[in-house]
Write a structure and sequence with these properties.
498 residues; alpha/beta; 2 domains; seven-stranded mixed β-sheet; 17 helices; 19 strands; globular; binds flavin-adenine dinucleotide
């Protein structure tokens, strides 16, 4: 087979890059090792319930915002039903010690009022924090879409200010600090390692608005697949790329596990950058680059319990998500000796139409808490696809504890919960090809190199959540930038904004 561009991986970054390149005349082949497309945003079903893995909510889907513009340009926007959080929508943040609840509104004005009303003595700090987040995003083209891309992209790696030090100087109250640190859960970086710059990029999206999509991540995947197929682009699933061919310093094609070869002059690789090295001849990159990419620290993992709830948890009225903080200490430490149910934990419900159109009862919720690779290390001795009875028993115990806690705190909203599946860092490692089960790729944090989309190998580009930014927005933007490196960045950016 022959193509102009082979895209490795059909997560949201690969889907976005494929749709953009195909729309602008490139012959694209999109290959995915999993048997279903979508990467982290695909769904899986249990007992008539469809559960999202990695798409519970997002920012940037309002009119004129980056994801909205991208989906429009890719021919996807009119195929999906975007559900904005209600006017006055918020995340529910709960202090386990006192039961006090703070509403994390998806609006700067409401959020400021709420925080000042609850922490009047911290008024100056609250204002400083919110102003800093806003100021850090005012020159970011993905938030101010009339700006050019290149000046921002070429200076992007500047992460110099520590979030912890900034909060130390600005905020005293522990609960308030937890509320402000909480967006760290949405990019998987412990607060001590987080930079003010990346924190701002993620938090600004949510402080400006939050959205679900009817039918969840799967409806986004299906819409992209339809749009891509309509351009004649080939999408192959169960198609793992096992090697990349290089001749005279430039890529020439890929070989799949089946032995099939695809000839091409450009490749976009959207998996974890560390895993790309094994596909390439060893002499392609310098030892220093390989060492940096191989040794990237990864974002935190998670525990996820996917459950049927007795009552319908309506995210379009009350809170969008229900968070509870740990009883003591930091909410996102670099390691934790606490059991997963004692860490930061959240309950989120399925997207509404997913319930009504696709499934029986529509009462599906997901419980998420942070996970660490250390949690699963005791089970790695017999590391095989068949999990040991010890691991199965341990997972059942964690499931039970997370469900008990959720029912205790939020049972009035959800009723009883019947767990249907549980994921641990091991599950994420195996199902999402995520080293150490990381849920947001390589960490975007202080002191860590961020892999560039461009590489020294002619025709070989990295994309996906480990490159520019994480989350659905970050990975989509990475898809845009990798396609832009091939098509011409500013021209593509201009055509998207038209
Ligand atoms: C539990 C969880 C909850 C999350 N919640 C949210 C949320 O609410 N909001 C939000 O914005 N983000 C959330 N995220 C993060 C978000 O899902 C990701 O940042 C984003 O989807 C990553 O997209 P991607 O394209 O970069 O990578 P991926 O989705 O990981 O796609 C990469 C694809 O490449 C494929 N691949 C890798 N190597 C090969 C190969 N050699 N050959 C062929 N195919 C290959 C993989 O199989 C995979 O499908 C969550 C993530 C998780 C795990």
């Amino acid at each position: 087979m022959k193509a102009d561009v082979v895209i490795i991986g059909s997560g949201i970054s690969g889907l976005t890059a494929a749709a953009l390149l195909a729309k602008h005349g490139k012959e694209v082949v999109l290959v995915e090792k999993n048997r279903n497309p979508g990467g982290s945003i695909r769904q899986f079903t249990r007992k008539n319930h469809a559960f999202d893995i990695g798409f519970h909510y997002t920012g940037c889907l309002g009119e004129g915002e980056i994801l909205n513009l991208l989906w429009q340009h890719c021919g996807v926007l009119d195929k999906v039903n975007i559900i904005p959080a209600s006017q006055g929508g918020y995340d529910h943040f709960e202090d386990p010690a006192t039961g006090k609840v703070i509403r994390g509104y998806f609006s700067y004005e409401h959020l400021e009022e709420e925080l000042i009303a609850n922490f009047p003595h911290e008024k100056n700090g609250i204002k400083t924090y919110l102003k800093t987040i806003r100021t850090n995003c005012q020159d970011v083209p993905f938030y101010k879409t009339d700006l050019p891309l290149l000046p921002f992209l070429r200076g992007y790696k500047d992460q110099v200010n520590s979030l912890s030090s900034f909060l130390d100087k600005t905020i005293e109250d522990r609960l308030l600090r937890s509320v402000l640190e909480a967006p760290g859960f949405l990019y998987g970086v412990p607060t001590r390692k987080a930079s003010v710059e990346v924190h701002s990029l993620v938090a600004h999206g949510y402080y400006s608005g939050a959205y679900k999509v009817a039918g969840g991540g799967q409806s986004v995947v299906n819409s992209f697949v339809d749009a891509i197929r309509a351009t004649g682009t080939s999408l192959s699933v169960n198609a793992e790329v096992t090697s990349i061919q290089v001749k005279n310093g430039a890529v020439t094609g890929v070989t799949l596990y089946s032995g099939e070869e695809i000839t091409c002059s450009q490749i976009i690789y959207t998996g974890h950058p560390g895993q790309s090295l094994a596909l390439l001849p060893p002499s392609v990159f310098r030892p220093a680059y390989k060492s940096r990419v191989r040794n990237l620290q990864n974002s935190l993992s998670m525990f996820a319990v996917f459950a049927e709830s007795e009552k319908f948890v309506d995210c379009t009225t009350g809170a969008l998500n229900y968070y509870i903080f740990p009883k003591t200490g930091e909410i996102l430490p670099p390691q934790s000796m606490l059991a997963p149910n004692q860490r930061i934990m959240l309950m989120t419900s399925g997207a509404p139409a997913s319930s009504k159109e696709l499934h029986g009862h529509g009462n599906d919720v997901t419980l998420l808490s942070t996970g660490y690779w250390k949690d699963v290390e005791p089970f790695l001795k017999n590391d095989s696809p068949r999990r040991s009875p010890e691991y199965t028993a341990w997972k059942a115990d964690i499931t039970d504890k997370m469900v008990t806690k959720a029912e205790e705190r939020w049972g009035a909203i959800s009723g009883t919960l019947t767990p249907l599946a549980t994921a641990t860092p091991l599950t994420f490692r195996d199902k999402l090809s995520a080293p150490s089960g990381c849920t947001y790729g390589a960490m975007h944090c202080l002191g860590q190199y961020t892999p560039d989309v461009r590489t020294r190998l002619s025709g070989f580009y990295l994309s996906g959540q480990s490159t520019l930014m994480t989350g659905v927005v970050g990975a989509s933007v990475a898809g845009l930038v990798s396609a832009g490196e091939i098509l011409g960045l500013e021209d593509l950016w201009r055509s998207i904004r038209l």
